[in-house]
């Protein structure tokens, strides 16, 4: 009985379910993607899948276009999200909690349902579906993911630094530029990552809001696995691996040390 109690009281024992989950649903799928990306239909090693991608101007153009759409969406979300997060976090605005709830409510509904509702809204007002509708839908779906990291960072900020800057004669613009903005860099970075990564790989929003008139890189991957049959799985895996590499590079762009340096530089 003591041995059994010792086993269940060990942290290592409770870690095994998480290890098993990671192996089955994270590591194994990634290994399968790598295997299919570097093999052909007969299981032989090849780089043909990547060569096919770079040799097809349409696929490369779609990839660049998807990066541009994701970048534009991220910039719009930042321009809209930062002021909203700032107003919600700063005490002098006395923002009611209702405003925060209004940003949370859409996240309680599946993004596909929100996108379908957006399509019906556009139809009701007679607005044509296309690239503009796609950007609107992207911003609408992912704006909360930009607001809340910035809001959390601003809310936890040491407000005595603002008071110290004001006591030293800094005006509101200087306080924001020298204190608030540098301290909010970690939240900005997190928000950019949380918006850019899903937008660069999405496909359902583009298909619904453009009636398949606009093709994103995620759509190419989805079609390779869904409509191309087993013969296209290798090509789809190669596209997925390229997307994973881009997302990984985005995730590692800017380290916590860089953020700390930016904060210190702004304060100095």
Outline the fold blueprint.
Layout: H1 2-9, H2 11-37, H3 48-55, H4 57-89, H5 97-104, H6 111-124, H7 131-155, H8 159-167, H9 172-183, H10 185-201, H11 204-210, H12 217-226, H13 233-251, H14 256-267
Helix pairs in contact: 2-13, 3-13, 4-7, 4-10, 6-11, 7-10, 7-11, 8-9, 9-14, 10-13, 12-13
Q: Termini separation (Å)?
A: 61 Å
Count the DSSP helices: 14
Spans of at least 5 consecutive residues whose pLDDT stays below 50 are: 255-268
Residue-averaged pLDDT: 84
Strand content: under 5%
| Shape type | globular
Radius of gyration: 23 Å
> How many beta strands in the DSSP annotation?
0
Helix-and-strand structural type:
mainly alpha
Helix content percent band: over 70%
Largest beta-sheet details:
none
The helix/strand series, from N terminus to C terminus, equals HHHHHHHHHHHHHH
